[in-house]
Amino acid sequence: MDFLDPLILARWQFGLTTLYHYLFVPLTLGMALVVAIFQTVWYRTGEVRWLQLTRLFGKIFLINFAMGVVTGIVQEFQFGMNWSSYSRFVGDVFGAPLAFEGLLAFFFEATFIGLWIFGWNRLPRALHLFAIWMTAFGSILSAYFIIAANAFMQNPVGFEMSADGRRAELVDFFALLTNPVALAAFPHTLFSAFMFAGSVIVAVAAWHLSRAQHLDVMLPALKFGAWFVIINFALTALTGDQLSLVMVDTQPMKMAAAEALWHTACGADASFSIFSIGTPDGTSEIWSLRVPYLLSFLSTHSFDGCVEGLTDLQAEYEAMYGVGIDYTPIIWITYWSFRWMIGLGGAATLVAIAGLWLTRKKAKRPVAKWMWKVAIWSAPLPLLGGLVGWVFTEMGRQPWIVFSLMLTEDGVSPSVPGWTVLISLISFTAIYASLAVVEFRLIVKAAQKGPDPIDEDAHGRESSVEKTPTTVY
Predict the structure, then answer these.
(1) Contact at 8 Å (CB) between 129 and 40?
(2) Running DSSP on this structure, what letter comes out for residue 367?
């Protein structure tokens, strides 16, 4: 392997910066909605504990949002720096949803965040509540435009090739936005992000409850977070099932790679392996724990359906796109990332279910210290599940950078030497590692400080805002 190969280094750089940026995305999406819900409950009930939760998790949301903006800017610069050939080929199509994300969705989101931050004590309570809901809506809208851009790479639609055959030109923006891959991937991504927000709430509440502090605030927070995880895991699973059907229609090679299925199988033979031991390339299986018919059902919603194998698909792709190219992605990455994605989300849900059971009113025993620690340290599980899910999504598309249109090796900048990419890769990694430490410490500090005391009158409504300084953020 050439360690100064610009293609390899550019892929590593974009992969690392994208995954690093995604560390902040789920918490932004999920926490904006959670804070809006907490503030709505306070608005409707006047119970000061919900205002305390709004402000506590509002701080966490704002810290995370600020860091996410910084990392996202660097990510987009790489399209022109390391992937200029890709940008020239698909920029007319790919740039449209990204432009809408920046000029419409992000501007919308940032505007209402400002109103929410500085609107305490200044805006009417209803209008201030409206601001945080619009912030949540803006973040969700922003996510959709980005997923629509990514969906074009998975399933190119709404375009025509230029007369010279060198560029993809946008001809149907509506078709681009309603790409079946985008429509299926968006709710799946969104619900997994909500899961992470719920697990963070569970961890913060567990830290305080393990120390027997802020019980009247943190016990409701724990129950809310646990239910939020459970409900959104179910929704993530349902939308993931729909996404798998779309994936079979648009990228059958990816589904075959998820199971390391080399030969077409039907019915009972199209089984899903929970765990396998074999050679790294997946061509030889030593032992496997399998569920008969499951892969067939996941791929076709029929127990008798057939799933195309990698060998057959390779032959089909050679006939369609040309010989001499291995169209099979790296099997061990797609196989295991698919299972880790499911397993990590399932583990977080089991922790949430256990938390609800152990803290129920009729529980006879106090919660053990080690159980609280499990709840605290389980917080990143949904985030890690989302990360490996994106690894599966992007690595399963290889060797295409735009499926069926452009190979990844053809998208890299032709005039950028490997050593310059290596320098920026090392620099970005070092800077991002430092920022990650800062982000983690700020969030932990805010979480451990807990809810701020808030004065309230006999009704616990307007005065709880009016007596709280606007400099809380």
Answers:
(1) yes
(2) P
State pLDDT tens for residues 152-181: 989 999 888 888 888 888 888 899 999 999
Q: Which two tokens stand for residue 221?
A: 């927070």
Q: Write out the E strands in 18-173.
A: 159-161, 168-170
Closest CA to 33 of 99, 105, 100, 109: 109
Token pair of 234 as six digits: 């179910």
3-state secondary structure string across 400-469 = EEECCCEEHHHHCCCCCCHHHHHHHHHHHHHHHHHHHHHHHHHHHHHHHHCCCCCCCCCCCCHHHHHCCC
At position 200, the amino acid (one-letter code) is V
Contacts 24+ apart (CB under 8 A), 69-74: 70/435, 71/17, 71/20, 71/21, 71/24, 71/432, 71/435, 72/21, 74/17, 74/21, 74/428
Entry pTM: 0.85
Cα–Cα distance for residue pair 206/202, rounded to 1 Å = 6
> Residue 306 forms beta bridges with which residues?
266
Q: What does the alpha-carbon distance between residue 87 and residue 252 come to, in Å, rounded to a whole number?
A: 26
Contact 256, 312 (CB under 8 A): no
pLDDT in the model for residue 364: 62
Per-residue tokens: 186: 């968006």
